[in-house]
Specification:
The chain is mainly α and 51 residues long. The chain has one domain. It is built from 1 helix and no strands. The longest helix has 20 residues.
């Protein structure tokens, strides 16, 4: 999946409801992983989904 941010705050019109929900859940999981990771210097997180 490419990095795409949130271009459609009210939902991506090209995705069905279940696909949209799965994509948003994956985005949230990546964000939670990032904020829970201790860092001591500038850090770049991979855009790949968190397993």
């Amino acid at each position: 999946m490419s990095t795409r941010g949130i271009p459609f705050p009210a939902g991506d019109p090209e995705l069905g409801p279940e696909q949209e929900r799965a994509w948003r859940r994956q985005l949230l999981q990546r964000a939670l992983h990032a904020v829970a990771t201790p860092v001591s210097e500038p850090t770049v997180f991979d855009a790949d989904p968190v397993q």
